[in-house]
Design brief:
The complex is a heterodimer of chains A (257) and B (189). By secondary structure, chain A is mainly alpha-helical. In chain A, 68% of the residues lie in helices and 4% in strands. Chain A has one domain. Chain B has 189 residues and is mostly helical. Chain B starts with 5 loop residues before the first helix and ends with a helix. Classes of the chains: A mainly alpha (257), B mainly alpha (189). At the A-B interface, strand 3, helix 1, helix 2, helix 3 and helix 4 of A face helix 3 of B.
């Protein structure tokens, strides 16, 4: 049976010389299958947006309706979660949503899923976390630390609750990173394993039991494939929602928090 | 989920060490390919680059375009609704105007009908009066004539009576009665 982890292997397609960046160390600039997947996702997103907004009509066609639904969904979300200032952060949330969605969905068609790479999800998580920090300090200055000072709690409890708040805040990028990574990797491993069972049964390795294993596993594979499409959308959406919630914490710090 | 290289390692011990070592190197220390940190740098840099480009494209081009379409649509719909409302008002006004015009026309028709009727009635009354006057004149004239004829007849009756009396008196007395005697006799009778 094929190794279900093989699909996550980074393979170099074009090897380029390493570059040593100051403070980071040597970086391998080779073009890998991960780079290709990211590029395809990027091109798909840009092409989609270009088609949707290029010939945009007042009465939308099919593709334009899809684009406008996605756009309206994220626009409503930033508006309802962040409030009046939400429109300023819309491009960031929309970018992260579309990029993750494209990578997730393309993972269902290509042999490589970019969002099942920890490096990718960590980058997305750190981009969000970094933006939250930058916006937090830029809007509130040192008042940003009021985020960890729970005014609703009794005075004695405040340092304790504040500490908990601080740790939960610092864990946000990690949970963001692991949630997307775990969902995408887990789903693709499960798919591969059940598909592998089908292959094993069909070539006769499992003997007579194969007659039962093959249809069962095939059914599982079909079901999981449908589920994975749902997860692909849902995880991108969850990432966008959490980005909005985290941004809201620092944008509307002090009022209505 | 067996490692595909494991059987090879079991078969040939000599070459197995090399194969296994290289497999370990490929898979990294933890076994998951995602933890091969030598691939992280390139992916992260490329992703950040793509993300920034996509962010700028969406922020500067796609989002404003989309918003323009939304605004345009809202404007179009608003204008259409306003137009519809205006046309509706206009239609209502026209309907009201038509209604009042109709009422006016009806009233004027009634007025002119009444006027015509009054004129006709008056005409009839006048003509009747005229005809009656003519008839009355004729009747009066006829009555006058009848009266005259009666008077004449009465006068003749007197003369006849006189003559008759004279004749009777002559026959009876042999004398001719005078006019005064006749008159006295007539008065006594």
């Amino acid at each position: 049976m094929a190794d279900p982890l093989h699909q996550f292997q980074i393979q170099k397609i074009v090897d380029l010389p390493d570059v040593t960046l100051p403070g980071i160390g040597p970086v391998d600039l080779a073009i890998t299958n991960s780079h290709v997947a990211m590029t395809i996702a990027f091109v798909v997103v840009v092409a989609f947006l270009a088609i949707v907004t290029g010939g945009a009509k007042v009465v939308p066609g099919r593709l334009q309706s899809v684009g406008e639904t996605l756009f309206g969904m994220i626009d409503n979300m930033t508006d309802s979660i962040i409030g009046h200032d939400g429109r300023k952060y819309f491009p960031f949330v929309f970018t992260i949503f579309l990029f993750i969605l494209a990578m997730n969905v393309l993972g269902m068609f290509l042999s490589f899923t970019a969002t099942s790479q920890l490096a990718i999800t960590a980058t997305f998580a750190l981009l969000t976390f970094g933006l939250v920090l930058v916006v937090g300090f830029a809007r509130n200055g040192l008042g940003f630390f009021a985020l960890f000072w729970p005014t609703g709690a009794p005075l004695v409890m405040r340092p304790v609750v504040g500490l908990i708040e601080f740790f939960s805040f610092m864990l946000r990028p990690i949970t963001l990173m692991l949630r997307l990574f775990g969902n995408m990797m887990g789903g693709h491993i499960a798919l591969k394993v059940f598909a592998g069972f089908v292959a094993t049964a069909v070539i006769g390795t499992a003997g007579a039991a194969g007659f039962f294993i093959a249809p069962l596993s095939l059914g599982m594979t079909v079901g999981l494939t449908a589920l994975e499409f749902l997860v692909a959308f849902l995880q991108a959406f969850v990432f966008a929602v959490l980005t909005c919630i985290y941004l809201n914490d620092v944008v509307n710090l002090g009022h209505g928090h | 989920m067996a490692d595909p290289h494991a059987p090879a390692a079991a078969d040939a011990h000599g070459a197995a060490a090399d194969t296994h070592a290289s497999t370990e190197a490929d898979h990294g220390s933890g076994g998951l390919p995602q933890f091969e940190f030598q691939h992280w740098g390139g992916q992260i840099i490329y992703l950040v680059f793509l993300f920034l480009v996509l962010y700028l494209l969406i922020d500067k081009i796609f989002a404003p375009r989309m918003r323009r379409v939304f605004d345009e649509r809202a404007e179009t719909i608003g204008k259409a609704v306003e137009d519809a409302r205006r046309v509706q008002n206009e239609a209502q006004n026209q309907a009201e105007a038509g209604q009042s015009e109709l009422a006016e026309a009806r009233a004027s028709a009634r007025r002119s009908a009444d006027a015509a009727k009054a004129r006709v009635n008056e005409d009839i009354a006048r003509r009747t009066a005229e005809a009656e006057a003519v008839q009355a004149g004729r009747v009066a004239e006829a009555e006058g004539r009848i009266g005259k004829m009666r008077d004449a007849a009465m006068a003749q009756v007197e003369a006849v009576a006189d003559d008759t009396t004279k004749a009777i008196v002559e026959k009876l007395t042999g004398k001719t009665a005078t006019a005064a005697e006749l008159k006295a006799a007539k008065g006594a009778a």
